[in-house]
Design goal:
Elements (H helix, E strand, L loop, with lengths): L4 H8 L17 H6 L4 E2 L1 H13 L7 E4 L5 E4 L3 H10 L3 H21 L15 H7 L4 H5 L16 H22 L1 H22 L9 H17 L7 H18 L7 H18 L7 H26 L9 H8 L3 H15 L2
Antiparallel strand pairs: 1-2, 2-3
Length: 350
């Protein structure tokens, strides 16, 4: 997509501040490149512009030029610089999680005294009792006060096969996202997605023992979808990108239908990833629409978490067999009625 001189001025001059999501992918007006050598560099505005971009998480070089009439024309000169910066940037958040998850699996196997019986754990790993001691998602224990179990399952895996698949997905999805959006955004979404996914798992499978970073990985898919929605106009072949992403999501959720896989955590992580993306990702065309998405994402994330914790800690049966009990509790709180019925109606329609 090409940008006119006016569009470049709006993005790089005194117009709306840019984000980091799509700038390095934009193709700029060739005519402007041919004439830029005849323009004067406005160092003062260029410096302000670079600081503004760095504040958005984009470390690049940018120059602003004045034409013969003294009007500021934007020229983003950091395409190559940013791509080189991305190549040099080491995705330490993804690497730290990957190394830590591998080390913890090894420790859990040693603690277990070796591998569990393959008939008990086909993933080639420890027993569920060992994973429970280390912090697996056990809803009954969470209700007794061990709330840290909403986060610790992210670091645990059922076995070598489980960890292997997750590491492949993690390196393929999280590494480019961390390079593009920065380490702190990925860290926040990774953790919030894991918590949101484990919350959904605890609600819909209250008797299970679950572990794994799959909920966080699905949050990365949700982040990709949010990025595509936010920066649709500046994405190369957005329809094609959407089709590929939707196919990936469908296949991933289909694999979650296997008996030993917790698809509820996947769905929860994905939903939280989309909402978090609306909050933390920036658009190259920041304006009222972007502000609306930030507010919308914040509201939806708050609703999701509030509804989830309410349903979980009120011990509401999400199987739909205690509708009368749920209705009685809902009548005491109008907000609870709006929030909890989402879960019940979704489960009853299965």
């Amino acid at each position: 997509m090409g940008h006119s001189d006016v569009e470049m001025a709006n993005m790089a001059g005194e117009g709306t501040p840019p984000g980091s999501a799509r700038f390095h992918r934009a193709k700029h007006n060739p005519e402007f490149f041919q004439s830029k050598d005849r323009l004067r560099v406005d160092e003062k505005k260029s410096q302000k512009f670079r600081k503004r971009m760095q504040g958005e998480g984009t470390k690049v070089q940018a120059r602003l030029f004045k034409n013969e009439e003294g009007r500021t024309i934007g020229y983003y000169g950091g395409i190559e610089e940013e791509e080189q910066e991305q190549k040099r940037h080491f995705p330490f958040v993804t690497a730290t999680f990957s190394i830590g998850q591998t080390a913890i699996l090894i420790y859990s196997i040693v603690m277990n005294g070796g591998f569990a019986d393959p008939m008990v754990n086909p993933m080639i790993g420890p027993n569920s009792s060992t994973l429970t001691i280390l912090g697996a998602n056990v809803p009954a224990l969470i209700k007794e006060g061990e709330f840290w179990r909403f986060t610790t399952p992210i670091a645990l895996h059922a076995g070598i096969i489980h960890l292997g698949f997750n590491l492949l997905s993690q390196l393929r999805a999280a590494v480019p996202l961390e390079k593009e959006f920065g380490w702190w955004r990925i860290l926040i979404v990774y953790m919030i997605g894991g918590i949101g996914g484990n919350l959904a798992s605890a609600i819909f499978t209250p008797t299970s023992v679950s572990v794994g970073a799959s909920s966080s990985l699905f949050a990365m898919l949700g982040l990709q979808l949010a990025d595509l929605i936010i920066n649709w106009a500046d994405t190369d072949r957005p329809v094609r990108a959407l089709i590929i992403l939707v196919i990936t999501i469908i296949i991933s959720l289909a694999l979650g239908l296997l008996p030993i896989v917790d698809n509820y955590s996947h769905i929860g992580g994905f939903i939280v990833g989309v909402f978090s993306g609306f909050i933390f990702l920036k658009s190259t065309r920041f304006g009222h629409c972007q502000k609306f998405l930030v507010v919308l994402g914040s509201f939806l994330l708050l609703v999701y978490m509030t509804a989830g914790f309410f349903v979980f800690y009120q011990d509401i049966d999400t199987s739909g067999r205690r509708d009368e009990q749920l209705a009685q509790r809902c009548t005491h709180n109008v907000c609870a009625l709006a929030l909890t019925c989402i879960y019940v109606s979704g489960k009853s329609g299965d």
